[in-house]
Amino acid sequence: MAILSYLTIVGLIVALVMHNQNKTELGAYHLRQSLGLIITAIAVGIVFLIVGMIPIVNLILIILAPLVGVGFLVLFVLGLVSAVKGEQKPLPLVGASYQSWLANAFV
C-alpha cells in the first residue's frame, strides 16, 4: 500500500481501497504523505496557470515551472524510497506539515 500510494493518482486510489480492507500504520503514513504531495502539486499547477496569464510573469514561469516539476519528482522519489524501505520518514520541507494537516485521514 505504501509503495502504491506514490505511483500516480490511480495508485493512490488503489492503495486507499487496499488500506480500507487492511489498515496499517505504514500505509496510512504514506497515504497522507502522497495525498499531501499530490494536493500541493495540483495547487501549484493551478497557481502557475492563473499567474501565467500575466505576460511578464509568464516568462519567469517558463524557467521556474520545470524546476518546480523536478522538485516534486524528487519528493515523490524520496517518498517512494522511504516506502520501499518500510520507513516512516517525512518528506523534506513538507512531510511534517502533511502529517499534521491530514492527521485524521486514513486512521
UniProtKB/TrEMBL annotation:
Q: Does the keyword Nucleotide-binding apply?
A: no
Q: Which residues cross the membrane?
A: 6-22, 34-54, 60-81
Tell me how this protein sits in the membrane. Multi-pass membrane protein
Localization recorded for this chain is: Membrane
| Main subcellular location | membrane
Statement: the UniProt record of this protein carries the keyword Ribonucleoprotein: no
Source organism superkingdom:
Bacteria
The UniProt keywords, alphabetically, are: Membrane, Transmembrane, Transmembrane helix
Q: Which InterPro entries match?
A: MamF_MmsF (IPR019109)
Pfam families, alphabetically?
MamF_MmsF
Q: What is this protein called?
A: Import component protein
Whose protein is this, by species?
A: Cephaloticoccus primus
